[in-house]
Write a structure and sequence with these properties.
The protein is mostly helical. The chain has one domain: Fumarate reductase/succinate dehydrogenase, transmembrane subunit (3 helical TM bundles of succinate and fumarate reductases, Up-down Bundle), CATH 1.20.1300.10. It is built from 5 helices and no strands. The chain is globular and about 50 Å long. The termini are far apart.
Length: 178
């Protein structure tokens, strides 16, 4: 195999891995988060939970960490909104990985679940997850070719911001009632 063929195969593999990454994020995890912030359950069956929550979450988290590792943020050099959105996506992803471990432990009766520090982390985790989903849907819309022009991307920034606000309000209300 020649060097050019090998690099083409790597590029093709990464293309499909990124497509799967965005698909697992907005389809399986996004569906779960939308229900979860409203206080509703999803994937009640253990088999469905493994297939449609745990496996997509594992893949999305691990590949997201790889994307973050290889990323080269330029928001300080070019302080544009979209560069800050990109940076925010990486930061929230890094925060969500340990937060989800804590959250699952707390939901399964960990001793720290009622601690004041955990409540503060829970609020931060909620807002991080909602931002990560809303901004991830914006990025997926570009990657999947739904918003290819500058005008449609500007419009979709507003749509993703509205999704963030709606989900954040639902989640904050649900968390306050918890």
């Amino acid at each position: 195999m020649t060097v050019g063929a090998a690099s083409g195969k790597v590029a093709s593999t990464q293309f499909w891995m990124r497509k799967l990454h965005s698909l697992t994020g907005f389809l399986f995890l996004g569906y779960f988060l939308c229900l979860h912030v409203r206080g509703e359950g999803a994937y009640e069956s253990p088999v469905l939970r493994v297939l449609f929550l745990y496996l997509p979450l594992l893949y999305h988290s691990l590949y997201g960490l790889y994307i973050t590792y290889e990323s080269q943020p330029n928001n300080l050099r070019y302080p544009e909104l979209r560069n800050w959105m990109y940076f925010g996506q990486r930061v929230t992803g890094l925060f969500l990985v340990p937060f989800l471990v804590l959250h699952v432990a707390a939901m399964n009766g960990a001793a720290f679940a009622d601690a004041g520090w955990y409540m503060a982390v829970w609020y931060a985790g909620l807002l991080s997850a909602v931002y990560h989903l809303a901004n991830g849907i914006f990025g997926a819309a570009i990657d999947w070719g739904f918003t290819v022009g500058p005008h449609s991307q500007r419009v979709f920034v507003g749509v993703s911001f509205a999704a963030f606000v709606i989900l954040a309000v639902y989640g904050l209300r649900t968390l306050a009632e918890f």
